Automatic annotation (TrEMBL):
It comes from Rhodobacter flavimaris. It comes from the Bacteria. It is an enzyme of class 3 (hydrolase). Its EC number is 3.1.3.25. Belongs to the inositol monophosphatase superfamily. Signal peptide: none annotated. It catalyses: a myo-inositol phosphate + H2O = myo-inositol + phosphate. The keyword DNA repair does not apply. SUPFAM superfamilies: Carbohydrate phosphatase (SSF56655). This is Inositol-1-monophosphatase. Keywords: Hydrolase, Magnesium, Metal-binding. Its cofactor is Mg(2+).
Length: 263
C-alpha cells in the first residue's frame, strides 16, 4: 500500500521504538531471576520507547497534539490533529518475558482516527491502516474472518486486574459468551487483540475499562479490514466509556445482543 507521509512517519517511529524494546526484552529474561525483579527496568524501557516515538513524530509534526500512556496529554497548536500513543501495550506480558506486546500509534483528525500502526516487534508483524486505503500486515492485505456461526467463533477479551471495578461485568460477559462460542482468549494486549480481529484470527473482541491509547490504532485496523466496532453500552462514546466491541460483520450484532443484556 502506498501510504501517506504521516503513515510512513508512524511506521518509522514504531519500528524504531520496537527495536529498542526488543533489546530490552532480551534483558528482561535475565532480570526475571534477580531478587528485585524486572519492574523498574520495564517502566524505563516503556518510557524510553515513548521518548523515541515522541521525538520522531513531534520532530516532524510539531503542531500536532499528543496523548501518550506515559507522558499524558499535550495540546498542540493544531487542535484538529493528535497522535495517540501506547509505546508498550501488553506491559505485563513484557514484564514476564512473554513475547506478546506491541507498539501502538494512531493519528486522530477532527475526532476520528484516520491512521493506525501496531508493531508486534517480537514477531516482526507490522499492522497498519489508513482511512479508505485498507488494512495490512507486512505486505498482506487484511480481511476480517468470514465465520458466521457463533458456536465456531473465537473471541478475545481482557480480564481486569488489580480489583478494577469492571471485573464483575467482565465475569458476567464471560459466563454469557463462553457457553455459546468455540472459546475466549485472554492474550494481554488490547492493541494486538484488535489487530487479530482485523487479520481474521478471531471473530471478535470486547473489553471494558481500557484507555484510548490501548485501542485507537486497532479501531481503524478493524474498520479498514471490513469489521464493525461499537461501545459495550449502546450510545456511549468508545473512548469516553473505555469499552469496545469489535467483530466481523456476522458476529457483531450477536455479540452486542449478548454483551448489552442488563445485569
Ligand atoms: C493493557 C492492555 C490489556 C488490557 C489492560 C491494559 P498496557 O495495556 O492492552 O490487554 O487488558 O487493561 O490496558 O497497560 O499493557 O499498555
Amino acid at each position: 500500500m502506498q501510504g501517506s507521509a504521516n503513515l510512513n512517519l508512524m511506521i518509522k517511529a514504531a519500528r524504531k521504538a520496537g527495536r529498542s524494546l526488543v533489546k530490552d526484552f532480551r534483558e528482561v529474561e535475565n532480570l526475571q531471576v534477580s531478587s528485585k525483579g524486572p519492574g523498574d527496568f520495564v517502566s524505563k524501557a516503556d518510557r524510553e520507547a515513548e521518548r523515541i516515538i515522541k521525538e520522531e513524530l513531534r520532530g516532524a509534526r510539531p503542531s500536532y497534539g499528543w496523548l501518550g500512556e506515559e507522558t499524558g496529554e499535550d495540546a498542540g497548536e493544531d487542535p484538529t490533529r493528535r497522535w495517540i500513543v501506547d509505546p508498550l501495550d501488553g506491559t505485563t506480558n513484557f514484564l514476564h518475558g512473554l513475547p506478546h506486546w506491541a507498539v501502538s500509534i494512531a493519528l486522530e483528525h477532527k475526532g476520528e482516527v484516520v491512521a493506525g500502526v501496531i508493531f508486534d516487534a517480537a514477531k516482526d508483524e507490522l499492522y497498519y491502516a489508513e482511512k479508505g486505503l485498507g488494512a495490512f500486515m507486512n505486505e498482506t492485505r487484511l480481511r476480517v474472518s468470514g465465520r458466521r456461526n457463533m458456536i465456531e467463533a473465537i473471541f478475545a477479551t481482557g480480564v481486569p486486574f488489580g480489583g478494577k471495578s469492571t471485573l464483575p461485568a467482565t465475569l458476567q460477559d464471560l459466563a454469557r459468551l463462553m457457553p455459546v462460542c468455540a472459546g475466549v482468549r485472554r492474550f494481554g494486549s488490547a492493541a494486538l487483540d484488535l489487530a487479530y480481529v482485523a487479520a481474521g484470527r478471531y471473530e471478535g473482541y470486547w473489553e471494558r475499562g481500557i484507555n484510548p491509547w490501548d485501542m485507537a490504532a486497532g479501531l481503524i485496523l478493524v474498520k479498514e479490514a471490513g469489521g464493525f466496532i461499537g461501545p459495550v453500552r449502546e450510545g456511549r462514546d468508545i473512548f469516553e466509556s473505555g469499552s469496545v466491541i469489535a467483530a466481523n460483520a456476522e458476529m457483531f450484532e450477536p455479540m452486542c445482543k449478548i454483551l448489552r443484556q442488563p445485569a
